[in-house]
């Protein structure tokens, strides 16, 4: 479902900010200041950014309008923007990166403007892997379990019987994309679609996170064996209805669940969905044409998406993206760390991880740093700077990177 390519609302960097180095600007917080604060990074582009993928603290990719992608190898001290050759008219709403060298790009747009690209050499060469030949097709989001196994969701198109079905494509080799047969998918409702606002209307459990779930099957992130990836796929919809589609067997069969998120108009619905394990997840959205309106825009599930409980936080607003912190709290009261071992009696001992509780909820001009059940910390840039936000990606080490219109890139420790 289309969302304006130049942002839900305008805004961006002040022209007086020098494009020289990352700049620590004034942020207004509703709780006392912490030792480390959000930091704006200089992107060297004014394109609208809606795709972002953090590999590690030092390595991240972003993507946006006019065939643009960006990469940093030094934690944001330097961002290098570039264009995919021949893709200057495309809007890259999604990027998924696995290293400094390997990344996938997904463009959103009607028909052949929806494409999938791949690079294995840091953008020196790009392979066009898939072009949507259906003139009514429109890609919305792309996600990967590992470098071989991925999924794309697109807006509903009529099947051979005329019924509207969402487009779902999967790959099991990181090269060839195959559509899930429409006969396996539930029918979409009239006026229902998915939002390509933040590359987060799909939720899966990537291998690195799924393997930390108690009882998960061990597997290599480089494995080509589909039995070693979590079989769950969730995607969220909006428009006339706001629902969650779920497959527990890698797209073979599906269920659809109603949600209490704001719905009924083309501009309303669920814009983002995330799961921290097979049972606990969150959806966020609202009305992007009225971003300051109160909810119901945020809800949680504790049963894998079957039922959803509205958040009691008020007032709410439009939320375009939501992401779980990827760091793991190893023991109660212990500082967050990505390590899964600790020192005990001079020996390293493995500790069962506790699922992360921290959430990043992205609004139009603010970010909630949310650690339930406590109230969220609201992070708001100085209004004079006019900074807006679209999408977020969590760092493996904890924290997140957030992107937006006019080349906005912000990091949260």
Features:
Methylamine Dehydrogenase, Chain H; 1 helix; 4-stranded antiparallel sheet; 413 residues; disordered N terminus; 1% helix
Radius of gyration: 20 Å
Number of strands: 33
So, CATH architecture?
7 Propeller
Number of helices: 1
Provide the domain count: 1
Percent of residues in helices comes to under 10%
CATH homologous superfamily classification: YVTN repeat-like/Quinoprotein amine dehydrogenase
CATH class: Mainly Beta
Strand content: 35-45%
Strand order across the largest sheet = 1-30-29-28-25
Q: Main β-sheet: number of strands, strand sense, barrel status?
A: 5 strands, antiparallel
State the low-pLDDT regions, or none: 3-35, 210-223, 330-342
Structural class: mainly beta
Quick check: average pLDDT? Answer: 85
Could you say what the CATH topology is called? Methylamine Dehydrogenase, Chain H
Structure description:
There is one protein chain. This protein has 413 residues and is mostly beta strands. It has one domain (43-220, 233-329, 352-412): Methylamine Dehydrogenase, Chain H (7 Propeller). It has one helix at 207-210, and strands at 27-29, 39-40, 49-54, 60-64, 68-72, 80-83, 92-97, 103-107, 115-119, 127-131, 139-144, 150-158, 164-171, 178-179, 192-193, 202-203, 233-236, 238-239, 243-247, 255-258, 268-275, 281-287, 298-301, 309-310, 319-324, 341-344, 347-350, 359-363, 367-370, 377-381, 391-394, 400-403, 409-412. Strand 9 (115-119) and strand 10 (127-131) form a beta hairpin. It is globular.
